[in-house]
Specification:
Blueprint: E1 2-5, H1 8-16, E2 20-23, H2 27-39, E3 45-49, H3 50-55, H4 57-66, E4 71-75, H5 87-95
Parallel strand pairs: 1-2, 1-3, 3-4
């Protein structure tokens, strides 16, 4: 796993869980971080915060569509998700099961 975060708190939390990564703030830095992660064949999952995913959306989408791996996983930052729906609400709506 490798995390690309836009803030130190999310990065530090992931680092405490044993996940390496970087903190970046610009689209160019996101691209460089992804390219660096792609060079390491031991990385199977690249986690990227929602804000950075939106910042480099076309680049990330192109990589996701052209590569079979690694898996790109969009994660919320320390402030929570900016989306209106979460996976829990999706599951709840789909199958009527509440997930905490």
């Amino acid at each position: 796993m490798f995390v690309i975060s836009d803030n130190n708190d999310t990065f530090t939390g992931m680092k405490l869980c044993g996940v390496n990564g970087v903190v970046v703030h610009t689209e160019e830095e996101v691209v460089a971080a992804v390219e660096r992660a792609l060079e390491d064949k031991s990385i199977g999952i690249i986690m990227i915060t929602e804000k950075l995913r939106r910042l480099a959306d076309s680049y990330i989408s192109q990589k996701m569509n052209s590569l079979g791996e690694p898996l790109f996983l969009e994660i919320p930052d320390r402030h929570g998700s900016t989306r209106n729906s979460s996976m829990s609400s999706f599951i709840s709506t789909s199958i009527g099961l509440k997930v905490d």
